[in-house]
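Friendly challenge for the regulars: who can give me the structure tokens for this chain first? No prize, just bragging rights.
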Amino acid sequence: MKLIVGLGNPGKEYLNTRHNVGFMYLDYIFDNKFVFNKRFNAMEYIFSKNGEKIIVIKPYTFMNFSGDAVIKYVNYYKIDISSVLVIQDDLDMPVGKIKLLYNHGDGGHNGIKSIVNSLNGKAFLRLKIGISKSSDIDTKDFVLGIFNNDELEKVKNSFKKLSSFIDDFIDFKNRDLLISKYNSKL
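First reply, four minutes later:
Bragging rights claimed.
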């Protein structure tokens, strides 16, 4: 069983904001397949591939409390944290740049910090999508700001490059090969 988590904030006011790139990527891949699960406070899509259950979620706990929803899924379905993938934004990478990491610190990202604290560990896979911090704007205002057209085009291009990533994540048995494939490709 695998758990795929896209990070973001719920509500129309956060649509297409930089912090919501995790939600945006999952919407790109799983167009309109999500339903709200009140018990876990998340939008979810559950399917099977090759006999394995795959749970895809967008926590509706707001970014800083993402771990609250993630731990509910992990505990309820008894998911090993090494089978968790989190898709997040990254301020320190150029817009649209991709990096795949396993077992790394939170890097100052409050959503990741919440997940690490809730899981009591960091041994999960992270797909980081760059949003490139502007030094002129307060960090909070920047991440909650909307992508400009050029940035949005770069992000959408990275989504196209990642169109088969979820399938590869599900199918690859060797995490290091998956990381190598995507970090060298992108």
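The first strand starts at residue 2 and ends at 6. Residues 149-161 form the longest helix (13 residues). Your move, everyone else.
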